Amino acid sequence: MSHMPSAHHDEQAHDECVAALSSLQEFLHGELDENAADTIRTHLQACATCLDSFDVENAISALLRRCHPPAEAPSTLRMRITSIRVTHFDG
Ligand SMILES: [Zn+2]
Fold first, then answer.
1. Residue 12 CA, ligand 1 centroid: distance in Å
2. Number of independent structural domains in the chain
3. DSSP character for 74?
4. pTM of whole model > 0.85?
5. Cβ-count burial of 75 within 10 angstroms (0-12 exposed, 13-18 middle, 19+ buried)?
6. pLDDT at residue 10 tops 50
7. Is pLDDT above 50 for 9?
8. Is residue 48 a contact partner of residue 75, using CB atoms and an 8 Å limit?
9. Does 69 reside within a domain?
């Protein structure tokens, strides 16, 4: 599971993107330690490439569905990702 599918458009995958996305499943499953999870959160909040190129939105939606009812609105994806941090501290 060391290679993500090449769903990106123009090749702009930096090492940070590869690292973040390769750990995305673990991140979503809460299997990362706090430092690693925070690294990914920070990256996804900052990196449009990851958000745009991979199935992050779907994954985030699945994650948040545990805590919140679905609220489909692609423009709020960044806000939803930010809410992960809130959820994290909330419990
Ligand atoms: Zn990225």
1. 9
2. 1
3. G
4. no
5. exposed
6. no
7. no
8. no
9. yes
